[in-house]
Specification:
alpha+beta; Immunoglobulin-like; 2 domains; five-stranded antiparallel β-sheet; four-stranded antiparallel β-sheet; 16 strands; elongated
């Protein structure tokens, strides 16, 4: 089979050459108004990521995802594993927020706030330019091997910091600090996790890079379904830019030649694109909406004395001079769903009890008859304390009369955010039983903000009065 038959008619991926080999991208930096804003946002996000584990709210880390103990703290509020409904509602809100933002602004998340873009474009690639020189400029010729070694050494230090910070979100900064200065043999799982995460970050930001956005990330594939002709995306004004061609100072005497558009085919938009696409070919899934092509094109337009905006944030309908619609079904439906789910989330959050209670029968005989004729049931309760302080709960039977807890009541002290269980014995007078089981009401209270009454079926046997005897 000839090579011409194997060669595709157009580029399959921006990160692949025609022969299928890796196309290594080293985009040129195009400082401009959007790049300055993105850099500010990126540095704020990097600082926030590094500082959040150290920030305390109500004596708790701002964010702590304690998977081992199934406790999840967000800005002073701790959620437990029982809060599955809250978690489900929260995830629904997250997804529909993504849908709404994408419908309005395209992939603005990818270009402005995604960790992959933030760290690659504003941390790792600047370090690479520092040691190996910036594309489009004269590169250093001496000590290239040493420069590359130093680059990866800095990469390693940064990746190690990011990995340890990542671990802090799950175990806390104090634990990570103790692990850093302790022996890895004392915490082999955490050590392996940090080394593995560091290695993955080195591979991602040092080698794999933009292929995460082009090949792995599913968000790019969803873009076509989540956006429409009125979504704000990076666009190229084809009507204004075509036909493209180099401009000359001398006017051509040949009037048969077509009048050239504003695009001078300098390819700066392609050279500066972090995913290597040509935005002039239309909307593409690899476009992350970073606006580097806008900054590059604006500089060129300034130089040739043409108005900016040949490449700009706009919608496909606007560029094609078609009717634009801000209010459209998805822009109306998504906020309505968000509003309903958010209302449900608030209702569940506000109505959440200060404690979770489980009450059940202890394993063994369903009931036991004492020599005195009294009936006993062994019960067990599990209490999850949601308060920020240790709380003592009292367990009593409030009805019917003739049923009590051994000792009058049972108590259980539970630490904040923890779960504890207690076994207790319920005693009933035999005459209480008109059937083989009766309903009793058990009250569990902390004598302050929490009280819960639970109806429980107590087992026994139907009471039969003994015949009266007379003395002869």
């Amino acid at each position: 089979m000839s090579e011409s038959l194997l060669k595709p008619n157009e580029r399959v991926l921006s990160t692949l050459n025609d022969d299928g080999t890796r196309r290594w991208l080293k985009p040129r930096l195009s400082p401009g108004r959007f790049w300055m804003r993105r850099r500010l946002v990126a540095y704020l996000l990097i600082a926030l990521y590094s500082l959040l584990p150290f920030i305390k709210i109500n004596d708790k880390p701002a964010i702590l995802l304690d998977i081992m103990h199934r406790e999840f703290t967000f800005f002073g509020k701790t959620f437990l594993s029982h809060d599955t409904l809250l978690f489900g509602l929260f995830m629904i809100m997250v997804f529909f927020t993504i849908f709404l933002v994408t419908a309005l602004f395209g992939r603005i998340w990818c270009g402005w706030m995604c960790p992959q873009t933030v760290y690659l474009e504003f941390l790792y690639r600047p370090i690479e330019r520092l040691f190996e020189g910036a594309p489009g400029k004269k590169k250093p010729k001496k000590h290239l091997g040493l420069r590359r070694f130093l680059k990866y050494a800095v990469y390693l230090i940064i990746s190690l910091h990011l990995a340890q910070t990542f671990l802090s979100y799950f175990v806390g900064t104090s634990v990570v600090h103790a692990w850093i200065f302790g022996s890895p043999l004392d915490h082999p799982v955490a050590f392996i996790l940090v080394i593995g995460t560091t290695g993955l970050m080195l591979f991602d930001f040092g080698i794999f890079r933009e292929q995460v956005c082009c090949v792995i990330c599913p968000y790019a594939r969803l873009q076509g379904a989540l956006t429409d002709q009125d979504s704000l995306i990076i666009t190229y004004d084809k009507e204004r830019g075509e036909p493209r061609g180099r401009k000359t100072k001398k006017k051509s005497a040949d009037t048969s030649l077509p009048v050239l558009g504003d695009c001078i085919d300098c390819t700066m938009c392609v050279q500066t694109c972090p995913t290597g696409i040509d935005i002039r070919m239309g909307s593409q899934l690899e476009c992350i909406g970073c606006a580097q092509c806008i900054d590059a094109c604006d500089v060129v337009m300034d130089k040739i004395d043409r108005p900016r905006g040949l490449i700009r944030y706009s919608s496909e309908n606007a560029v094609e001079h078609k009717a634009q619609h801000f209010l459209r079904p998805r822009v109306v439906i998504y906020p309505l769903i968000l509003l309903l789910v958010f209302a449900g989330f608030i209702v569940v959050l506000v109505s959440k009890n200060h404690a979770n209670i489980w009450l059940g029968r202890e394993a063994g005989l369903p009931f036991y008859t004492l020599p005195t004729g009294e009936i006993t049931n062994q019960l067990r309760t599990r209490i999850t304390n949601r308060n920020a302080i240790s709380t003592t709960y009292t367990i009593t039977v409030i009805e019917p009369e003739g049923v009590t807890i051994s000792g009058g009541s049972a108590t259980l002290t539970v630490k904040p955010g923890k779960e504890a269980s207690e076994k207790f014995v319920v005693i009933a007078q035999p005459e209480v039983f008109t059937t083989s089981q009766i309903e009793i009401v058990i009250r569990i209270t902390d004598h302050n903000e929490f009280t819960k009454d639970t109806i429980f079926e107590m087992k026994g046997h139907k009471y039969k009065a003994l015949p009266e005897t007379t003395d002869d």
